[in-house]
Amino acid sequence: MKNKLTPVAIILIIIPLSLLSLSINIRSSDHKGYTRIVFEGDRGFEYKYDQSNRGLEIRLKRKVELHKNITYFSRSILLDKVVHQLDNDKSVLKVHLRSKFKIKRNFILERPFRVVFDLVKSEEEEIDAEPEIKENVNENQPRKKKRELIETICIDPGHGGSDLGAVGSLKTLEKDITLKVSKKLKQLIMSKLGLDVIMTRNMDIEVSLNSRVSIANNQKAQMFISIHVNSSFRKSARGSETFFVSLKATDQEALRLSQKENKSFEEINKIAGDDELKMILWDMAQNEHIKESSKLAEYIQNELNILLHTRNRGVKQAPFRVLMRAAMPAVLVEIAFLSNYYEEKKLQDDGFLDDVVDAIYTGISKYIYYHNSMYR
Amino acid sequence: MSKKIIYTMVGLALVFFIGSLFIFLKSSTDSKKKPRDVLDEEKSQELVIEPEFKIVNIFFFTEESRFMKPIQYKIEQPAIKQELYKKFLDLLIKGEENYITPIPDGVELRGLYFIEKKQLLVLDFNEQLISKFPGGTTMELEFIYYIVDNICYNFKEVRMVKFMVSGNECKVLSGHIDMDNPFYPDYRYLRDE
Lengths: 376, 193
Hints:
The structure holds 2 protein chains of 2 kinds.
Chain A: H1 2-20, E1 24-31, E2 34-41, E3 47-52, E4 55-60, E5 70-72, E6 79-87, E7 90-97, E8 101-109, E9 113-121, H2 122-129, H3 131-140, E10 152-157, H4 174-193, E11 196-199, H5 209-218, E12 224-230, E13 240-245, H6 249-260, H7 265-271, H8 275-283, H9 290-308, E14 312-318, H10 321-324, E15 330-337, H11 341-347, H12 350-374
Parallel strand pairs in A: 10-11, 10-12, 12-15, 13-14
Antiparallel strand pairs in A: 1-2, 2-9, 3-4, 4-7, 5-6, 6-7, 8-9, 13-15
Chain B: H1 3-52, E1 53-60, E2 69-76, H2 81-94, E3 109-115, E4 120-125, H3 128-131, H4 137-154, E5 160-165, E6 168-169
Parallel strand pairs in B: 4-5
Antiparallel strand pairs in B: 1-2, 3-4, 5-6
C-alpha cells in the first residue's frame, strides 16, 4: 500500500511545482538576410508581442525563470540584448535591436517548445533601393575603415616569473594578483559573452613587454586589457585607475609630419627608408585606436568606481610600453595600491578580487555594446 | 728795488701759479673720475648679487596630498651652467626631511649633458635606479615627474629631460612607462601654494 502511494505522492507534488516554474533559454544566430532569435522553454507558454522602432516586447502570461536578467548578443549584427522584467508578476522580455527592423516571420516549434522570430534590418531595403546614389557618395568621401565585431580579447596579467612587480608590506606579490584576476576575468568573458580570450601568460613565467603586445597583434585581438596592481612612494595613496596610452613627443612630431604631407602613416611607411622613422611609425600603432582606448578606459573605470567603492583616481594617460605598440584599443587597469596596507589586505581577499573582475567585465561588456552599436 | 727782491717775487709768483695749476688740474680730473667710480661700484654690486646665487623652488611629495609642495632654496651659482644643474640634481636626490623623495636609496647621478639645440637635458644615473626601483606605475610616474617638473620649472631653457642608466638607454624602470623618449613636464603634479 505504502509502495503504491509513493509514486502518486511524487506526481502530485511535481505536477503543481512544474506548473509554477517555467525556464526559458534565449539564443540568436545571424543568417543570410535575417537574424533569428529563439526562446526555448522547458514547456509550452503563451505570449503576445508588440513591435516598436528598435524593439520587440514579448509579454508572457506567467513568470519565467531566466539564467540572467540581461542577455547580451555582442556578436549579433542586429540583436543587442534581451532584458527580462516583471509586470504584475508576469514576465516581459524586451528585445533591444541595433537598428530599425521588420519581423520576417514568427512561428512556434515543438519538442522542445520554441518561439522563433526571424528579423530583418529595414535599412538594408532602403540601401538596395538606391545603390547608385550610395556609390557616388562613397567615391567623393574618404573611405572609412571597416569596423569589426569584437570576437577576440587579449588579457595581459602584468609581470611574472622573476619580475615580481610591486611587493606589499605583507609580502603580497603583484604578479600573483594579476594572474589570479586575469584567469577569473577570462572565465567570465568566455562564459557570459562567448568571446575568445587569449592570455599573454597562463602561469608564473616571465614574458617580455614586446612579446606581450606581439601575442595580441599576431592573434588579431580586438581589445587588449593589461591587469596591474599599483604602488606609490606615498603610503597613503589608494584607489583604482585605468590608463590608456599618451602621445609621446616623437609621435606628435610624426603625426604633424603626416598631416603636413597629407599622407597616411602607411604611405609614409612606404616612402620612409630610414629605420628611425619606421620605429616611430611602429610606435604609433596605438595612435589610431586612442579614441576607442579612451572610451574603453572610461567604461572600465566607471564600473570600478561603482562596484569597488575605492577612491576614484580616474582615467589617465601615460606612455606605457606595453600599450604603445598594440594595434587595437588597449588599456591598463591598476586595481588598487599594494603600497597601502589597507588595500593590500583587500587584495588578499578573494571576494574583493571577484568584485574587481565583475567591474572590469561589466566595463568591457558596455564597451562592446557601444562598439557594436556603431557597427553598420 | 733791488734785483734780489724782484727775483724772489717772480719766484713766489711762479710757485703760486704752478701750485694753482696743479690744484686746478687735480680737481678737474677728480670731478671727471667720480661718477664713473660710482657707476662701477653700482655695476659691481649687481654682478656680485645676481650671478652668484639662484633662487629655486623644489617641489616635494607629501603624505597628505598627491600634489607636490614647493620649498625655496638659494643655490650658489657656478660659472658653468652644467655645474648648476648638477647642484640642483644633488638637492633633488638628497630630498628634504618630512617630505617624500621618490628616488630609491643609493641612486646617484653619474653625469649630465645639456643639448642646447634641442633644449634637452640628458641625465645619466647609476645602475641602482633599475636594480633598486620598487615597482608600480605610480612610483615610476612620481619619480619621472619629480625630476622633470622640477628641472623644467626652474630652468626655462630646458624643455625636456631624457633618462639614461650607466651610460646606456633606459627602456623601462620597473616594467611600465616607456623611457625610450625624452619627457616633457607634466605640471599636473605641482601645486604652487
